[in-house]
Amino acid sequence: MKILIINNKGQYNHRIGRSLRYLDIPSDLVSNELSPEEIKEKDPIGIILGGGPSLDESGNSIEYITNIDELDIPILGICLGHQLIAKSFGGEVSTSSTESYAQIEIDIIKDDILFNGIESPMKVWTSHKDEVKTLPDDFEILAKSNICDIEAMKHKKKNIYGIQFHPEVHHTPDGELIFKNFYEICLNNQK
Length: 191
Prior knowledge:
This protein is α/β, with parallel strands linked by helices.
């Protein structure tokens, strides 16, 4: 009954694990070099695709996304993970025109369980070196900011979420609610 955190070699991946432990959410940080079969053997209740330096460092993460129907578990992509989800479903990812690494405010524009208990605008810590430029088919935008139109997105029929920001750092004050809500999504998927 654990969430697997896929380590895409980002500097905050270990903080995701620490955040979940602090919230008593069972999890394991695993290599992005595991095969989809090895992921399936671990029988996770959800996957968090962590951030990372580039699409080239993402190992087998795209395979986990493309095999999601077989796994039938929720996915939350953070930063690079968000971009990998978009790319897997046909969205466009490219360099941001306003590269930034700072705390910003995002506007939550659609009600969803992922943002339960969070007021809009929400303060978040975000990295905008690369970003999702074109929303993939079958996805909807959940949040945007004045520097990025797709700060958060969700598949319309599946529990697949992407967020550009980092909920695992203290510069995102309500970040723990994102993790609690995602855990709730994972538990509901088990019913």
